[in-house]
Amino acid sequence: MDIVANTLLAAGASPAMIHSLAEIPDFTPQAQALCVNVGTLSPSWVPAMKSAAELMVKLGKPWVLDPVAAGASGFRLNACLALVGVKPTVIRGNGSEIIALSRASLVKGVDSAHGSMDALEAAKSLARASGSIVAVSGAVDVVTDGNRVVAAHNGVPMMQKITATGCAVTALIAAFVALDPSHPLEATASALSVFCIAGELGMDLAKGPASLRMHLIDSLYGLDEAALLSRVRITDL
Amino acid sequence: MDIVANTLLAAGASPAMIHSLAEIPDFTPQAQALCVNVGTLSPSWVPAMKSAAELMVKLGKPWVLDPVAAGASGFRLNACLALVGVKPTVIRGNGSEIIALSRASLVKGVDSAHGSMDALEAAKSLARASGSIVAVSGAVDVVTDGNRVVAAHNGVPMMQKITATGCAVTALIAAFVALDPSHPLEATASALSVFCIAGELGMDLAKGPASLRMHLIDSLYGLDEAALLSRVRITDL
Amino acid sequence: MDIVANTLLAAGASPAMIHSLAEIPDFTPQAQALCVNVGTLSPSWVPAMKSAAELMVKLGKPWVLDPVAAGASGFRLNACLALVGVKPTVIRGNGSEIIALSRASLVKGVDSAHGSMDALEAAKSLARASGSIVAVSGAVDVVTDGNRVVAAHNGVPMMQKITATGCAVTALIAAFVALDPSHPLEATASALSVFCIAGELGMDLAKGPASLRMHLIDSLYGLDEAALLSRVRITDL
Predict the structure, then answer these.
(1) What is the pLDDT of residues C65-80, one digit of tens each?
(2) Where are the domains of chain C?
(3) What value of ipTM does the predicted structure carry?
(4) Pfam families of this UniProt entry (chains A, B, C) (predicted)?
(5) Residue from A46, A73, A165 to probe the interface with C (highest C Cβ count within 10 Å)
(6) For chain A, which ranges sit under pLDDT 50?
(7) Which chains, if any, share at least 3 CB pairs under 8 A with chain B?
(8) Contact residues, chain A, for C5 at CB < 8 Å
(9) How far apart are CA C172 and CA C166, in angstroms?
(10) Burial of C118 (C-beta count, 10 Å sphere; 0-12/13-18/19+)
(11) Which of C41, C42, C211 minimises the CB distance to B218?
């Protein structure tokens, strides 16, 4: 939660962290976007997550799912699948998470019989099955609505040595989608680029993952349009 | 919890973080002060919070309440009101939180009929209704017992771009009140000043909110009397 | 969890943080080592901790216990004793924690009648009673199997001003024991030395506890064999 909240603050958003089902009816309508992260999942959190997501959908507001370690247990996979059923605007995960979700979503389909699905194909299948924009983080990030595929090429490998950078960028996607809810694919690709460019700028000053973490957040806070435009590399695939 | 515990350690205090009701009877008597923070509130935590606060009152020791986002939901407001009923030594919040608590505490009184209560008036009303010292964080921090009002003028705006700086200073207030329990207003104003002066010193070295966070804690650790005395700006209002 | 996960990532390990009993059967077999930390203990976590530890023992894999504040409450001490009963490969605590655990483990024995047990004697007694390697952190760290005692002399005092450095080194012990499960005493002493040498290297650049935290993790990430070998001080007692 720490790096997630600090990322959002640095980007100009206003984070609030809510766990309890009892707060969903009052609090959720005040939010412009919701980020559901199943990181250290407890059974009691699942109803709160579902309830908040359902309320956002009912209110016509965006919500974003981070299916952390979706394939690590049946409990976690089932919780993620139930959340995918609530139609997230965007799902962002790493390759393994998206492949796990995609296979489970398509368990009765053709693709699931094959072990060879790569992350991009999994993302496209999951996007078509769920109606969500699906983003896969990696050396190159890809974002797809099931047909169109956009690749975001920024970032540095050392970002993977900082815990919860994936969680942080998922929350940033929620903030970007809140500002442009009718273009979730573009908003998602932009959020991934901005976060990764902050990582590149931070890497110029970093001596290791802990100083990278600091310089990344500082760079995100100080990011100006010129720096962004000179570095951004988003392409259609 | 991370920045809260590191703030306390940097200031020379010994933090311990306890969640479970089962530990209150054994652990609470070992503490010189208690800080209750309703940040990511869960229903099961409320009885533990109340029980710990009640035990501190019974033992004649100070306890401090941080009513995080008190107005964000009925559940949260009710939990905060129940805690205010256990007579905190100090309540510290931002303007919105103190206004929300004050209005709800006075719901049958005159002031609650007016929408125009500002944070200072809310703080004074809440202090009189609760018997607590009330501190409101803002561009200028104010501390009141309902009659006397003290303003602490230190700090830098970027501290608001770091998650949980408010939580950290509330915990620091608890540590200061533990050292001088018979002067909670002065101890509260001192803690706010010391934390904000550490922020000013940190700001001289910071390039953004993440490096400010680091330099603030380092400055708090290294703070000496001369630096404090040359910078402190506390006034009576 | 933040500094623990970042420590493991910096050292080249792959951390995952699991709370729920529902995930133990699926997830635990995927881990090469388990670290159980009772930090902010809740009653509902104890069965998950026990279940995960029992499964690791059944699978013949190492697990490490951090009995945080073991003596602070009866609830916490009983939870720790129940976990000691599941035969941790290593137990790492500070002097107070190891003394509390050792006394409680030996409550019907001779030693428990004496109040004078020091941390080293407590560690040896606990190691003999539990069959675990026991490590005591302090100005000099000691590691014992009940007979042999090894002392690790690296480290800087300011590391104690950073919250959860003890938790971080316990997790690092788990990672080291995973790589050399048949030499848990040596692996434990090595992990303590490596973490403390990273602290020494970080201290050369630090201006306070928050920058030490950053430089420690950076140094751990960048540590090379030459720096290690020139600094390591492990002796037999």
Answers:
(1) 999 999 999 999 999 9
(2) 2-236
(3) 0.94
(4) HK
(5) A73
(6) 108-116
(7) A, C
(8) 163-164
(9) 10
(10) exposed
(11) C211
